[in-house]
Structures are given as structure tokens and as C-alpha cells.
């Protein structure tokens, strides 16, 4: 049933596939990011309570959603690497981790810059903020653990284990605003009901979310190619290709 | 267009500092990540090419001296 997938586990195939997709994905991501952000910054009405400060939403929400989306992708790749020993999945884990870490840092920093004028404080130790900070530490832990062993394979395996165990943090982040009393507002769009945000503000936001998603895929392609070269440098196909360039 | 003038746009209804701080840091971090990922790949490709060229030279030398 899944036989058509098998060629995609071959590093050489993935290397060339990523090379072909990267420029298109990157161009699309930047285009969507510019479109979504300019639309959100200049062509939407201000919020009736928060004025123009709410425009931070156009980077805060996309980076926060994709910080969790990237973690799911990383954890799935880690699970595949641990169970079926697929090498490309193993390298994907380490390729995604820095992307997710940067997204999480963006979500935290933009959240602080939004919290200061609206809540009157840069930071509170409440459930949503603390669990998102733990997500950043999980990403940093995966990166640090992968480099903590003299053998690259052992390090990658340990990092994958941490990535899989850390999945427990995702539902905690998502439901933190319902389970505990928090300064952070509840979900506006990631829920099974009509979004509680006006369509004129929703559209640029959805475009920005898509932009962060496509950017994550583009960066994954770029970083995975480097990882494949690093790990396959003694294979004939890499040597033949390096000789041509 | 919601804003009347450019200075209106930069002021962001008095929240300019926070809005532009957020967008500034976001773009700086994204540019750094994209740039660093490119740099890593270029650097590794260069190292690999040097290593292979060196192996090639050693092989040639060994063939000549045999």
C-alpha cells in the first residue's frame, strides 16, 4: 500500500527533490509573507479595544501556530526514525529543530511586545506563556542533545527520543488557556466553531499563517540538503556530484 | 488604506514602538535563519570539494610514483 513512498526514503532522491522545490517554496513564502503582513499592517481596520497594537497578531499567531506545527512535524519524523530507522527522517528532526526554535522565540518576543501595552507587563508566569517557553527549551534540548555525543548517530537517536517525549507539551500549550486562569486570551481561530474574528482581519492573518508554513517547508528543504551531504559525504553519488560542480 | 499619512502609519496609533519592535525582531530573526542555513550549506560544499580535490591529488601522485 505504501510502496510508492519507498523511493522517497532514499537520500539521493530527497536531495534532488528538495533542490528542485526550494526556490519555489522560498519565493512563495516571501510573497505570502509580504502580502499578508502589508495587508494586515496597513489595509485592515484597527481593533475596537486594542487600537493598532493588535496588528502584532499578524506575526504572533502565525509564529505561535507554526512553532507547534513544526514540533508535530519534528516529532513525527523522530518517531519514524526511531521505529523504522529511516535515515532521512532522522536528519529531518535535526533540520527542523532550529526552525522551530526561531519560530518559538518569535512567538514569545512578539507576545511580550504585545503584552506590555495591553496587559501592562512584558511577562507573567502563567500557563500559556510558561508552556510556550518550555517548548523553546525542548527545541534547544533537541539541538543540544544531538551535538552532545561524539558519535553523530547516537546523538541523533537521543534527540529523537526527547522530541517524541516532548509531544506531551503540545496539548498543554493548546488547552492551557482553558484549563487554567490566564491573562492570555482564548482561541480565536483554532477551534471547532466559527472564528471569532472579523473576515477583514481573518484573511491577511490566514495568509501570514500559510506564509510561515511554506517558509518552514522551504527552510526544511534547504537544511535537509545540507544534512544529507554531511551524512552521505563518503557515498559515490555525493563524490560524483561534488566532482562535477 | 486605513492610515491617512506615512507618519500616521509609523505612529500606529501610539503603539508604534511595540508594533515595529515586534516586526523588526521577527524579520531580523528570519533573515538570520535563512542566511545562516545558506552559509552552512555553502561552507560544507566548499569543504567537501577541497577534501575530494586533495584525495584526487594523492591518488594521482601515488599512480605517478608507482
Q: What would you say about this model in short?
A:
The complex is a heterodimer of chains A (245) and B (66). With 245 residues, chain A is an all-alpha fold.
Strand coverage percent of chain A: under 5%
* N- to C-terminal distance of chain B: 78 Å
Cα-atom radius of gyration of chain B: 26 Å
Count of separate DSSP helical elements of chain A? 8
Describe the structure.
The complex is a heterodimer of chains A (245) and B (66). Chain A has 245 residues and is mainly alpha-helical. Chain A is built from eight helices and no strands. Chain A has helices at residues 11-42, 57-84, 87-119, 127-146, 152-165, 169-179, 199-231, 236-244. In chain A, helix 1 (11-42) runs antiparallel to helix 7, helix 3 (87-119) packs antiparallel against helix 7 and helix 4 packs antiparallel against helix 5 (152-165). The mean pLDDT of chain A is 90. Chain B has 66 residues and is mainly alpha-helical. Chain B is 85% helix and 0% strand. Chain B contains two helices and no strands. Chain B has helices at residues 6-11, 16-65. The chains are: A mainly alpha (245), B mainly alpha (66). Chains A and B meet through helix 1, helix 2, helix 3, helix 7 and helix 8 of A and helix 2 of B.
SSE layout and pairings?
The complex is a heterodimer of chains A (245) and B (66).
Chain A: H1 11-42, H2 57-84, H3 87-119, H4 127-146, H5 152-165, H6 169-179, H7 199-231, H8 236-244
Helix pairs in contact in A: 1-7, 2-3, 2-5, 2-7, 3-4, 3-5, 3-7, 4-5, 4-6
Chain B: H1 6-11, H2 16-65
Amino acid at each position: 500500500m505504501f510502496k510508492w513512498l519507498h523511493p522517497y526514503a532514499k537520500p539521493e532522491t530527497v536531495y534532488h527533490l528538495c533542490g528542485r522545490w526550494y526556490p519555489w517554496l522560498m519565493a512563495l513564502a516571501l510573497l505570502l509573507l509580504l502580502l499578508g503582513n502589508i495587508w494586515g499592517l496597513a489595509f485592515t481596520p484597527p481593533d475596537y479595544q486594542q487600537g493598532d497594537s493588535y496588528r502584532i497578531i499578524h506575526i504572533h499567531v502565525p509564529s505561535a501556530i507554526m512553532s507547534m506545527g513544526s514540533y508535530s512535524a519534528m516529532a513525527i519524523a523522530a518517531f519514524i526514525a526511531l521505529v523504522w530507522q529511516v535515515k532521512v527522517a532522522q536528519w529531518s528532526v535535526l533540520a527542523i529543530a532550529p526552525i522551530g526554535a526561531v519560530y518559538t522565540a518569535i512567538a514569545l518576543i512578539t507576545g511580550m511586545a504585545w503584552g506590555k501595552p495591553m496587559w501592562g507587563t512584558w511577562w507573567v508566569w502563567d500557563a500559556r506563556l510558561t508552556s510556550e517557553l518550555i517548548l523553546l527549551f525542548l527545541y534547544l534540548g533537541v539541538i543540544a542533545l544531538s551535538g552532545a555525543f561524539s558519535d553523530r548517530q547516537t546523538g541523533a537517536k537521543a534527540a529523537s527520543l526527547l522530541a517524541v517525549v516532548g509531544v506531551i507539551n503540545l496539548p498543554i500549550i493548546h488547552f492551557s488557556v482553558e484549563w487554567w486562569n490566564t491573562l492570555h486570551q482564548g482561541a480565536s481561530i483554532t477551534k471547532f466553531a466559527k472564528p471569532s474574528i472579523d473576515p477583514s482581519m481573518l484573511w491577511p492573518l490566514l495568509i501570514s499563517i500559510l506564509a510561515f508554513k511554506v517558509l518552514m517547508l522551504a527552510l526544511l528543504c534547504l537544511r535537509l540538503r545540507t544534512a544529507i551531504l554531511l551524512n552521505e559525504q563518503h557515498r559515490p553519488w555525493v563524490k560524483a556530484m561534488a566532482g562535477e560542480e | 488604506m486605513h492610515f491617512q499619512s506615512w507618519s500616521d502609519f509609523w505612529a500606529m496609533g501610539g503603539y508604534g514602538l511595540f508594533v515595529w519592535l515586534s516586526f523588526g525582531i521577527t524579520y531580523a530573526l528570519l533573515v538570520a535563519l535563512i542566511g545562516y542555513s545558506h552559509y552552512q550549506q555553502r561552507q560544507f560544499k566548499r569543504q567537501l570539494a577541497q577534501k575530494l580535490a586533495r584525495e584526487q591529488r594523492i591518488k594521482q601522485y601515488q599512480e605517478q610514483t608507482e
